[in-house]
Design brief:
It contains two helices and six strands, in the order ααββββββ. By secondary structure, it is of the alpha+beta class. It has a domain of about 80 residues.
């Protein structure tokens, strides 16, 4: 013979039992070792800080005659929204790099080439966005 428990009481009993098993009072010492408490006040909100380096869009190769000048616009972006500055890392003396707009997350710059009549051949230059 089986005891008949009303369905409502059976669910209530399971609910109370489940609550007791997951309450703080029911945590064992082993469980507390892995317990983490996170307190966050209104002025303590978490902020994402990645300090990701800016991404420079590779400039196209430039070709020009001796004694001529050429300019190319530079573009870079920064996921952190930081201002970006362009600089020359290496290259011929007749190559200059400037920042036109440091922006907030995206920037533009310029690379200027002005070889003299005596300058000839192929040169390589480097540009940095930081």
């Amino acid at each position: 013979m089986y005891a008949r428990i009303p369905v409502v009481l059976a669910f209530l009993f399971l609910f109370i039992l489940a609550g007791a098993m997951h309450s703080e009072a029911a945590l064992s010492a082993a469980d507390r070792v892995h317990e983490v408490t996170l307190a966050q006040g209104p002025s303590e909100r978490a902020q994402s800080v990645s300090d990701a380096a800016p991404v420079l869009i590779a400039p196209a190769p430039m070709r020009l005659r001796q004694g001529a000048t050429a300019d190319q616009t530079l573009f870079a972006s920064d996921d952190d929204g930081d201002p970006i500055w362009f600089s020359k890392t290496f290259g011929p003396a007749y190559m200059t790099v400037t920042t036109l707009n440091a922006g907030s997350g995206s920037a533009t710059g310029n690379v200027h080439l002005a070889p003299a009549l005596a300058d000839q051949g192929t040169e390589i230059g480097g540009i940095k966005a930081s």
